């Protein structure tokens, strides 16, 4: 999702006498008229300062910065085209970034950029914002590509595992069913389902794991406890290994139950449901 609407920001009210207000207004209006006359020359000078993959386009009341970054075959896109647009509001006599007209990844919130506006859309302050947004886009696109590559590789080896993630690539859901089941975990019936939710940090490291274990048929409580204990032990892989390796260990790892695990299972019997068990831990 991307921001699709924009309204002028809240402005701090300043008090002037009528003559002071008119003087300031006339000065700002003249400044904008001068800018419009010089716009094309200013645009050329700014373009020379920008990196090759950032282009600037301007009109009397709008300035557009376009950033093109490389895609990846795993994303089915070769080039991504993002844009940041500044709009001139004649009533306010200032330029503001328009989140509604702009197009950037959802992870970037343009509403907190240039809140007080500017009289010069080509100022160093604006250029610094553009470069900062570009840096954030690059970091996000790398994270997006790496996660999609992981999903692509994992599904090639385990076609029946279902993957889902949020738009900003901080949460991932993995669903394991009949034809995609961890080798080291017993099922009460063919209809059992495990849903694992992973929370990822900016380095694609798992910092939180949640799961839901859904049993289609009632199971002896001791067996359920052993299975849950085993599942939690297997999920620890996501904290100790990179995402791809952790997934492989979770889906194929063979691990023997210990007597301490069995004892812990006995102690947890009263807390377990026969139909569905949910946990969230870090």
Please give the structural blueprint.
Elements: H1 18-49, E1 54-59, E2 62-72, E3 77-89, E4 94-97, H2 124-157, E5 162-165, E6 171-176, E7 193-200, E8 206-214, H3 221-235, H4 237-240, H5 243-252, H6 259-267, E9 276-281
Antiparallel strand pairs: 1-2, 2-3, 3-4, 5-6, 6-7, 7-8, 8-9
Summarize this entry quickly:
Residues 255-282 are annotated as: Disordered. This protein is of the alpha+beta class and 282 residues long.
Based on secondary structure, the structural category is alpha+beta
> What letter string, H or E per element, gives the SSE order?
HEEEEHEEEEHHHHE
Strand runs, count:
9
Helix content: 25-40%
Poorly predicted ranges: 1-7, 254-277
What's the rounded overall pLDDT mean? Answer: 85
Q: What is the alpha-carbon Rg in Å?
A: 28 Å
| Distance N to C terminus | 28 Å
Number of domains: 2
Report the sheet-strand fraction.
15-25%
Number of helices: 6
Outline the biggest β-sheet.
5 strands, antiparallel
- Physical arrangement of strands within the biggest beta sheet: 5-6-7-8-9
Shape: elongated
Q: Which characteristics define this entry?
A:
single chain, 282 residues, alpha+beta, Nuclear Transport Factor 2, Chain: A, 2 domains, 37% helix, coiled coil
Word description of this protein:
Keywords: Coiled coil. Residues 255-282 are annotated as: Disordered. Residues 25-59 form a coiled coil. Residues 266-282 have a biased composition (Basic and acidic residues). There is one protein chain. The longest helix is centred in the middle third of the chain and has 34 residues, at 124-157. Helix content is 37%, strand content 24%. It has helices at 18-49, 124-157, 221-235, 237-240, 243-252, 259-267; strands spanning 54-59, 62-72, 77-89, 94-97, 162-165, 171-176, 193-200, 206-214, 276-281. Strand 7 (193-200) and strand 8 form a beta hairpin. It contains 6 helices and 9 strands; from the N terminus they run αββββαββββααααβ. Residues 1-7 and 254-277 have low confidence and may be disordered. Helix 3 (221-235) crosses helix 6 (259-267). The relative contact order is 0.09. By secondary structure, the chain is an alpha+beta fold. It starts with 17 loop residues before the first helix and ends with a strand.
């Amino acid at each position: 999702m991307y921001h699709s609407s924009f309204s002028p920001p809240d402005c701090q009210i300043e008090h002037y006498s009528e003559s002071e207000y008119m003087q300031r207004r006339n000065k700002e209006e003249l400044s904008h008229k001068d800018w419009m006359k010089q716009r094309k020359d200013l645009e050329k000078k700014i373009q020379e300062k920008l990196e090759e993959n950032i282009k600037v386009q301007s009109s009397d009341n709008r300035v557009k910065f376009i950033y093109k970054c490389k895609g990846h075959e795993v994303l089915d896109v070769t080039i991504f085209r993002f844009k940041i647009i500044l709009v001139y509001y004649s009533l306010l006599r200032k330029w503001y970034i328009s989140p509604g007209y702009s197009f950037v990844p959802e992870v970037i919130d343009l509403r907190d950029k240039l809140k007080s506006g500017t009289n010069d859309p080509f100022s160093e302050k604006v250029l610094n914002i553009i470069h900062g947004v570009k840096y954030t886009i690059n970091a996000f696109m790398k994270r997006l590509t790496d996660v999609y590559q992981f999903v692509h590789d994992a599904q090639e080896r385990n076609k029946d595992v279902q993957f889902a993630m949020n738009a900003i690539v901080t949460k991932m859901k993995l669903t394991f069913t009949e034809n995609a089941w961890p080798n080291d975990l017993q099922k009460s019936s063919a209809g059992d389902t495990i849903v694992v939710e992973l929370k990822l940090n900016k380095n694609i490291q798992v910092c939180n794991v949640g799961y839901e274990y859904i049993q289609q048929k009632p199971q002896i409580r001791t067996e359920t406890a052993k299975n849950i204990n085993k599942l939690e032990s297997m999920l620890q892989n996501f904290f100790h290994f990179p995402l791809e390796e952790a997934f492989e260990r979770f889906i194929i790892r063979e691990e023997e139950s210990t007597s301490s695990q069995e004892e812990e299972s006995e102690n947890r019997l009263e807390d377990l449901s026969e139909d569905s068990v949910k946990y969230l831990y870090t």
